[in-house]
Amino acid sequence: MSAPAVEITGLVKRFGSVTAVDGVDLRLPRGALLALLGPNGAGKTTTVEICEGFVRPDAGTVRVLGLDPARESGALRPRIGVMPQGGGAYPGVRAEEMLRLVATCAARPLDPAWLLDVLGLGSARRIPFKRLSGGQQQRLSLACALVGRPELVFLDEPTSGMDPQARRLVWELLGALRADGVSVLLTTHLMEEAEALADTVVIVDNGKVIAQGSPTSLTAEQADAAQLRFRARSGLDTQLLAAALPEGYLVRESAPGAYRVEGLVDPQVVSTVTAWCAQHGVLAEEMHVGRRDLEEVFLELTGRELRT
Ligand SMILES: Nc1ncnc2c1ncn2[C@@H]1O[C@H](COP(=O)(O)OP(=O)(O)OP(=O)(O)O)[C@@H](O)[C@H]1O
């Protein structure tokens, strides 16, 4: 039986007094997609760079396609694709030139011209890297990670800076890769991305895994986890609304004009919220009772304060 795509046990990495990775365990089976989530500075990139063989761990075991990336990088490199955070290339190199250069390192590369077309870069093939837009640079960087037909790809925030059309294109491409049996480990700050793509989500904070599971299991629909959500003009007095509900209910304005009522949602609660809105001349739109989304679970686990 072949080894898992990635298997990490007790991984630790320190930079001076900072413990960037503090005992991480994770496993990515072959052909699956794992999304690593966490606030800024949580240790995601460091974990990925250790798997890629670019950073040496201080403790723990890492096996990538059954190999030790620190000691067997020569054997590993041709089998993996890497898209680093923010990409990068020689500023003057043209898009197609760069992809062809990367393709020469692979035994059985994909056709670079075809891949540029798939990623919507056909008309940009002669443009120097520095003149590509941020989203085009990201797509080129993804093309470089994929051109060698890797068995496993590491993608560090692959769709950051992409417009919604490009993001959807990349999601489709990642779905197709997975259907072809390619394993994918990606980091992202987009909960929608993790929810749409991942078999397993691993949430890290301060270098530690604080939750993992499928998106559905993490947002499991339990009676007390359900929420009432609605939209209305921003700036409603959420404390006043909470006071109209039985003790223990919380009301939050999670984004301007987006409200969440937390606590056991029953018909009486829905009726109280609707009546309160009517009394205060508030039109409650898009009222919805359902499970928490991944973003809500993430904020609950990692807190709402901004990381510095
Ligand atoms: N080469 C380095 N030297 C010193 N400190 C580092 C180095 N690389 C990372 N760190 C520190 O390690 C911690 C984890 O950083 P890392 O880049 O892994 O986080 P991240 O989860 O990828 O964050 P982001 O979401 O912002 O990309 C941070 O405190 C960071 O400042």
From TrEMBL:
It is a peripheral membrane protein. It comes from the Bacteria. GO terms for molecular function: ATP binding; ATP hydrolysis activity. It is found in: Cell membrane. InterPro entries: AAA+_ATPase, ABC_transporter-like_ATP-bd, ABC_transporter-like_CS, ABC_transporter_ATP-binding, P-loop_NTPase. One of its GO terms (biological process) is response to antibiotic. The keyword Nucleotide-binding applies. This is ABC-2 type transport system ATP-binding protein. Keywords: Antibiotic resistance, ATP-binding, Cell membrane, Membrane, Nucleotide-binding, Translocase, Transport. It comes from Amycolatopsis marina. The keyword ATP-binding applies. Residues 6-231 form the ABC transporter domain.
